[in-house]
Amino acid sequence: MVDIQSIFSIKDEVEFEKKALEVFHFQRDNCLVYKEYVRILNKPEPTCIEEIPFLPISFFRTRKIITHDKKTEIIFKSSGTTDSERSQHFLADIELYKTSFLKSYEQFIGKPEEQVILALLPNYVEQGDSSLVFMVEDLIKKTATDLSGFVLNSIKEVQKRYRAAIKANKKCVIIGVSYALLDLAETGSDFSQACVIETGGMKGRRRELIKEELHAILKQGLNLNFVMSEYGMTELLSQAYSQKEGLFQTPKWMKILIRDVYDPLTFEEEGKLGGVNIIDLANLYSCSFIATDDLGRKYADYFTISGRMDNSILRGCNLLV
To answer: What string of DSSP letters covers 46-107?
Structure first.
C-alpha cells in the first residue's frame, strides 16, 4: 500500500521517480484495466518513469478505471454533448482530491481564506458532475465570505463583488471559462487588481481562439498585465497553473513528459512539440500515468500547451491500443 502523505511530501526528482515506480507497481497489481494494458504492452517492470506505460485518456470514456478493492465515492464527468462522449472518473477517496487541489492552489494562487473567489463557469454548473465545479465550490467555502460564489449570468454582480473585495482589502480571484471571461472583457471594466484565471474552452459559444490571442483580448479588456491559466482535467486529481505567458508549472507530485506523436513509446527532447503525457501521483486509486490528446512542449521548469491533436494523429496513436 502506498503512503498517501508521502506523495505530497516529495522534494526532488529522485524522490519523485522512486514514488512513481512505487505507484506504478500498486496500480499494475490493483487496477484491472491498467493491469491488462501493461500486460498487452509487456512492460511489467519499468526501471525509470520513461519506461512506465501511459494509458490513453480515451479509456476513461469506455472503461471503469479504479483499483478493484475500492468503492466509488463520487463520479466526475467531463463536458460533452452526450454521455457516450463524456469521460468518467470514478473516485475512491474524495479527501485525496481535496488535499491535492488545495495544495496546488495554495502553492500557485494563495490561501483561499485570504481571498474572494468569483467563479464564471456556467456551462460546467449547468451540465453537472464536474470536478472543476467541485474544486471551486470547496475553495469558495474556504474563503468564508458571502462575496465569493458562482456568478453565472450577471456581469454587474461580478463588478459589484470585485469592488467590494478590493474595499475589504481581499485578493479577488476570478476563475472562468474563456467565453465567460470574454463577455466580461467586452464591458471594458477595470479589473486590474484581480487575479484572473482562465480554464479554457469556448464550449461552442464563441469562435475558438489560440491562447495568445485570447489572453491579449482579456488583458486589454480587463486592464490586466497578464492572465493566468489552469490546466486540469476530469481524469486527473491535480492541476498545473501558468502565471504568465502560458508557462505552466506543476506541483511536486505531478510531472509532464512529451511523447513523439507518431511513436507513443518514444519521448521528445526539450522544447520539441509532441503529445502530452501526465504523471499525477495523486491519482492513486485510478491511473496516475495518462497519455492525453493535448499537444505541448516541455522545458526545464515549465511546459506549454499548443492545442489538441487532430484526427489523423489520434488515429495513428490509437493503433497502439
So the answer is: -SSGGGS--EETTHHHHS--SBTT---SEEEE---SSGGG--EEEES-HHHHHHHHHHHHHH
pLDDT at 291: 97
**pLDDT, position 320:** 42
C-alpha 149: how far from its chain's center?
A: 21
Q: Which residues pair with 240 in a beta bridge?
A: 231
Over residues 192-207, the pLDDT tens digits come to 999 999 997 755 566 6
Structure confidence at residue 316 (pLDDT): 41
pLDDT below 50 — which residues of the chain? 312-321
Sorted by sequence, the CB contacts under 8 Å of residue 36 that are 6+ apart come out as: none
Predicted pLDDT of residue 102: 98
245 lies in some domain: no
Q: How many domains does the chain have?
A: 2
Considering Cα of 233, then 239, then 243, then 244, what sign does the dihedral take?
negative
**Cα–Cα distances in angstroms (integers) from residue 82 to residues 61, 77, 79, 181, in the given order:** 11, 11, 9, 25
Angle at 180 between CA 57 and CA 215, to 5 degrees: 80
**pTM (2 d.p.):** 0.91
Beta-strand pair 240-242/248-249: antiparallel
The Cα–Cα gap between 87 and 102 comes to 23
SS3 content of the chain, % helix, strand, coil (to 5): 35, 20, 40
Alpha carbon distances (Å) from 52 to 24, 124, 231, 288, 320: 7, 33, 23, 10, 15
| Structural domain of 17 | 11-71+253-318
Same domain, 41 and 151: no
pLDDT computed for residue 101 by the predictor: 98
Going by DSSP bridges, is the β-strand pair 240-242/228-231 parallel, antiparallel, or unpaired? antiparallel
* The pLDDT of residue 253: 98
Q: What's the pLDDT score for residue 17?
A: 98
